[in-house]
Structure formats: structure tokens, C-alpha cells
Amino acid sequence: MNLEKFKKEKLYEPRLDSYSLVLRHGSKQIFYKKHSPFVSGQPVRGDGKRKLKPDSIVVLPPKESYFAALIDGDWWWVEGCPECNGQKRSWSTYIECSEHNVCRDCGEASSDASRPLWAQRDGWQCNDCYWIEKNLVRQEALRCFDESSFVEGSYVDLDGEVLCPYCGEEHYYEFDGDLQIDDQQCDVCLHTFALSAKERGGDVLFTSRRIEEKELSDYEPE
Questions:
Q1: Structural contact between residues 182 and 136, judged by C-beta atoms closer than 8 angstroms
Q2: pLDDT given for residue 59 in this prediction
């Protein structure tokens, strides 16, 4: 990425004159000289932190979405928020400013949003919005499934694909040679189903069957 057009202001820190490497750790910028800013062989502490080398330097940015970058021999603060830079949010969005660090659906700020936060293609969702959308997709799939097209208990070769007996969604299952398979949960309708396999002529055939009543009401996560 060409960072030149996203740089905002020079990072004036005399101690960094001989440094050329930086690690982003949340909003913290950890400057170091070689290999790693952390002491090697040290276990992670109880608070989840690792011990820094004596010559590592930690600098906080003037804005939470800024990160440090060495451009043409000088350290600069660069804007890391995609929307501030005229770009779209994505799965890989790592840093956002306080204005744009909000749920893509309801606009709730990250600091106030229901947890956990769910990464999505066009920005994260708060937990409430995630389950509202998840249940809408679930109920649509259950209503639209043509149950007459599915024969429960019939073994079929779907090239590794397994059919959910509740909504018909195809799921890839990597067969490891064990014919005793744990129950599976459909990631669309969220029902749990039994899965069986058998080998025939060098192929692996699967069958799935229901083990609970089909339920159209909202799924309540534990």
C-alpha cells in the first residue's frame, strides 16, 4: 500500500533516530531494532503481556486510528481508518477512528456495543444485530426448504458435501476415515443433526438425519 497519501503528521521523537522497525499492538506503537521487541523465551504473563526488550520504545499515537510508518527515512503518523481514507470497511479492517468504529447496522460505538463483536465483510456487527440477522437468515432457509426433495437416511455421494436435513444447506465435511462421526450443527439454520458415512467402491457416502424437532422461532445462543 502506498502510505504517502495517508500520512498526517511527522512523528517527532528523538529516540527513534536509529530505529527502523515498528510493531502495532492495538493503538500502541512499539519500536525496536531487530527480530522482535519482546524478550525471547519469556512466557506470556498472567495479564497476557510479554516483557519488552530494554531498547524497545512504546509511543502512543495522537489519534487512536493513527499508526507509525517509516516513509523516505522519516517517521510519520499515518491514518489507518479505511473510511477516513475514502475506502470501504472489510474483513481485514484493523484500525478505525472513534467516528467510524461503530456497528455497521445500528451505529453503536465499539465501547458501548453488546459483546462479542462479529467481524463481517463490510464492518463489524454488535452481538444484538448479529443475532437479529442470523435468525432472519435461519428462518428464511427453514421456510424455503423443499422437504420433499430430501430423503432422510439415503446415502449420497456429494463430493464431500453434506446436506442439512432441516434447511437443505450444503456443508463440506472432510472425511478422516472414521465412520463414527460426531453430531454436526448447521451454520445456517443452527439445528443439530446426526451424520453417518459408509464406503462403497472407493467412495465415501454420507447421510444425515434429524435428531430434534424443526423449530422456526429465534435461536437463543447459550
A1: no
A2: 97
8 Å CB contact between 192 and 212: yes
In a 3-state reduction of DSSP, which class is residue 143? helix
User: What are the grid coordinates assigned to 122, written together?
Assistant: 463490510
Q: Which contiguous run of DSSP H or E holds residue 43?
A: none
Reduced to 3 states (helix: H, G, I; strand: E, B; else coil), residue 147 is: helix
- Cα gap 143→18, rounded to integer Å: 64
Give 2's contacts (C-beta < 8 A, 6+ positions apart). Answer: none
Strand partners, 77: 9, 68
Contact at 8 Å (CB) between 137 and 143? no
3-class state of residue 91 by DSSP:
coil
How far is the CA of 186 from the CAs of 7, 71, 165, in angstroms?
Answer: 45, 48, 9
- For residue range 162-197, list pLDDT tens digits in order: 889 999 998 888 877 777 789 999 999 999 999 988
